[in-house]
Design a protein that fits this description.
Blueprint lengths: L16 H13 L2 H9 L6 H17 L8 H7 L5 H14 L4 H6 L1 H10 L2 H15 L2 H17 L5 H8 L8 H9 L8 H14 L2
Length: 208
């Protein structure tokens, strides 16, 4: 069986179990040939195959991100794709490999931010994840932190608490004033009490 034969769509399945099982199989066997086949089929004329392939790819990224590092350029290119599933799937894959190859991800920041500006909530979730990872690396923090602050300023209020909580580990004595002032500036926009309380807790933790 080829990799394509093992995709959910090949079994006329609407659930993701076959794709998840395939990702585990590829990760367990370090099968880069299979990953190349998946990446090659991201241009398949069948959109169901495209969708299955990107799903398997980012599941591999969750399990064993180093297997995806060699394909970073292809994922960056996909950020401009009109197919939303491919776009946010590519951002998910890039997020998974940020710590494996931060230099490559840092070099693609302009395209990553451009995709987030136009993209879905999931695209933005993983863009923020990428920025937080880069902020934790001294070599890239100076560039990444202002971009993270911009995401916090424009993010939907539903996502803001999660972004703020996830960013806590990269807050330092040098950047905490900007970080907390950014969150404070958005408190009045948050209509749900539970969401606002979560952001307030982050502010309190930073200022302890």
């Amino acid at each position: 069986m080829t990799v394509i034969d093992k995709l959910a769509s090949s079994f006329n399945r609407r659930d993701e179990v076959p794709n998840q099982n395939l990702a585990k199989e590829i990760a367990n066997t370090n099968d880069k040939k299979a990953i190349r086949e998946l990446v090659g089929n991201l241009n398949n004329k069948d959109k169901e195959i495209q969708s299955d392939c990107i799903k398997v790819i980012y599941e591999i990224g969750t399990l064993k991100p180093k297997l995806l590092v060699d394909f970073a350029d292809q994922f960056v290119t996909l950020l401009a794709n009109k197919n939303n599933r491919l776009q946010w799937g590519a951002m998910t894959a890039l997020n998974s490999i940020t710590n494996e190859n931060p230099k490559k991800i840092h070099s693609a920041l302009a395209k990553i931010i451009a995709a987030a500006d136009k993209g879905s909530v999931i695209t933005n979730d993983h863009c923020v994840g990428i920025l937080i990872k880069l902020c934790a690396i001294s070599e890239y923090a100076e560039d990444a932190f202002p971009l993270l602050i911009e995401r916090l300023l424009v993010s939907p209020t539903n996502q803001l608490p999660m972004y703020a909580e996830n960013a806590l580990p990269i807050v330092t004595s040098e950047n905490k004033a900007v970080f907390t002032n950014t969150l404070i500036s958005r408190l009045h926009e948050i209509e749900k009490d539970t969401k606002r309380i979560r952001v307030e807790k982050v502010i309190k933790k930073v200022n302890k």
